[in-house]
């Protein structure tokens, strides 16, 4: 009866009206309602009032505190909990809480102390390692698991993809195909497609697409599988397929629009990129920060300065409501610099609500070298030094700007900064900040 109520106030009122309720199930139902709504204060009051408690009662409170990050309290309750009431759910809640907050040593200690583990316990620990980027620790645990399911494999595959270890992502996916009876799901395939996109592994991407079609996976859902397909084909240079898949989606969310806009931008299909951006706005889907990076990048690489200015100015309008970030200013500085509008780029940097970082100043320096504007480079140099950056590329760019202008003394001075700060440029590495 109590489970039908969505707000805890009305649920508690009905509970209180039933005088003499003593069964632990009813008390646990209301307690669980508080926990589900995140009302830990009232949950604790309910817990203290209970005439009797069982393992469910204790587990609910331990899980509530662990989930909200109050790990000290959760551990105290676990220690106070009668041994007979402790169950695997309680232990798993604690491991999840520690891992979610990056406390992997504590999570692993608790995992090792568990009297009994189930598949959820192993998956919880592996996910903890993966979401914190500790993929080597995750792999060691994964390799000794007594059994694995699709969640186990997907935690590892997604973890490798999120850590940028794309080759290992695909290697493990192949291993899953050959050694496991577990069938990949939408989350697995999104990570596989991401790896294919970053490695421009078109053939493997096509195979993944065939697998998705064969198993009738839904493209336009919360997993963003359709967006991942669009992104993969675009990054592999197949924009025609990216467009085709995009138009086949019944529901196009912001991720799908961004995948196509960014894909067209990086492939140099600038007008198509801008056209899709306009279609997105007309569709009612609001652009976000990623959308504008794609459009501004397209404008920068094609010299569409006026279009870029309009796009940048429209970001914070009521229709878009996106506040420009450093990455957007960086795109604008790059665009203006490429067009030779260095004074405007300088002025834009001065107007930024945040301090310019080395990438933004590096973009301006690159334009100074391109247009042989050592006067601007001199002003930028002081800001670079003020950042106390050990980024060799910026100092090399400063030297190159002076050298291009025939100012050999200044060029040598800039090189000496590298030596003085013991900055080393890697052999064969590019000095360009672009």
UniProtKB/TrEMBL annotation:
Naturally occurring in which organism (per UniProt): Triticum urartu (Red wild einkorn)
Positions of PPR repeats: 23-57, 87-117, 118-152, 253-287, 288-322
Cited Pfam families: PPR, PPR_2
Keyword Lyase included in the entry's annotation: no
Coiled coil: none
Matching Gene3D superfamilies: Tetratricopeptide repeat domain (1.25.40.10)
Protein's name according to its UniProt entry: Pentatricopeptide repeat-containing protein
GO biological process, one term: RNA modification
Gene Ontology molecular function: RNA binding
């Amino acid at each position: 009866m109590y489970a039908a109520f969505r707000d805890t106030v009305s649920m508690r009122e009905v509970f209180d009206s039933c005088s003499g309720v003593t069964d632990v199930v009813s008390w646990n139902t209301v307690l669980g309602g508080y926990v589900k709504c995140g009302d830990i204060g009232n949950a604790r009051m309910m817990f203290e009032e209970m005439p009797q408690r069982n393992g469910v009662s204790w587990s609910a409170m331990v899980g509530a505190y662990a989930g909200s990050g109050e790990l000290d309290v959760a551990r105290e309750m676990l220690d106070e909990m009668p041994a007979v009431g402790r169950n695997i759910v309680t232990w798993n809640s604690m491991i999840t809480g520690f891992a979610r907050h990056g406390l992997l040593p504590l999570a692993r200690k608790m995992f090792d102390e568990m009297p009994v583990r189930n598949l959820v316990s192993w998956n919880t620990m592996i996910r903890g390692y993966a979401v914190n980027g500790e993929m080597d620790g995750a792999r060691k645990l994964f390799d000794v698991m007594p059994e694995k399911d699709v969640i186990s494999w997907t935690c590892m595959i997604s973890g490798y993809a999120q850590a940028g270890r794309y080759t290992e992502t695909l290697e493990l996916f192949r291993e899953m195909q050959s050694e496991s009876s577990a069938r990949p799901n939408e989350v697995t395939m999104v990570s596989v497609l991401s790896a294919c996109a970053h490695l421009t592994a078109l053939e493997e991407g096509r195979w993944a697409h065939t697998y998705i079609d064969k198993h009738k996976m839904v493209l336009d859902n919360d997993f963003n599988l359709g967006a991942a397909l669009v992104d993969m084909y675009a990054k592999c240079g197949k924009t025609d397929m990216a467009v085709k898949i995009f138009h086949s989606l019944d529901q196009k969310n912001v991720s799908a629009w961004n995948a196509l806009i960014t894909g067209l931008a990086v492939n140099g299909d600038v007008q198509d990129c801008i056209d899709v951006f306009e279609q997105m706005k007309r569709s009612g889907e609001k652009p976000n920060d990623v959308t504008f990076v794609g459009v501004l990048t397209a404008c920068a690489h094609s010299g569409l300065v006026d279009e870029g200015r309009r796009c940048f100015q429209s970001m914070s309008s009521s229709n878009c409501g996106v506040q420009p970030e450093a990455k957007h200013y960086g795109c604008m500085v790059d665009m203006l610099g490429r067009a030779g509008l260095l004074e405007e780029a300088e002025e834009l940097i001065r107007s930024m609500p945040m301090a310019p970082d080395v990438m933004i100043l590096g973009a301006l320096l690159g334009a100074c070298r391109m247009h042989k504007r050592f006067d601007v480079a001199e002003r930028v140099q002081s800001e670079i030094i003020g950042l106390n950056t050990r980024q060799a590329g910026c100092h090399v760019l400063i030297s190159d700007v002076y050298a291009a202008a025939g100012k050999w003394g200044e060029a040598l001075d800039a090189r000496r900064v590298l030596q003085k700060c013991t900055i080393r440029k890697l052999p064969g590495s590019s000095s360009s900040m672009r």
